[in-house]
Design a protein that fits this description.
By secondary structure, this protein is mainly alpha-helical. The protein is built from six helices and three strands, in the order αββαααβαα.
Length: about 120
Amino acid sequence: MLAADPTLKQTVVQAQASARARNSMDPIKLIASDDSEIILDRRAAMVSGTIKNMLSGAPCDGSQFTESQQGEVKFKEMNAATLEKVVQYFYYKLRHTNHVGPLPEFKIEPEAALELLMAANYLDT
């Protein structure tokens, strides 16, 4: 059987990794509950474990999410202000991933804290 062929499996895995590397800067569209849109680099969106899973499905295994095919993710329960702050955090996280020493503060307004906490929980960030 083809599926049992380890060489074929390794080739598929390498092709998927190569495609992901090429597409790391492809734009992704995040859509808030009010239909406002934020476009960001795929690499920044991948800070979120949830978004990463949605965008990483392989087309050949039948598990690919619609979001991966369309390059956009809609958040029906997240307003535009929360989504904007989440995207700011994605870029903050990328910028400071290998930072040594104290990190610069990522400011969060107290009135936005609960919404951001719920978003962070959902997004696995």
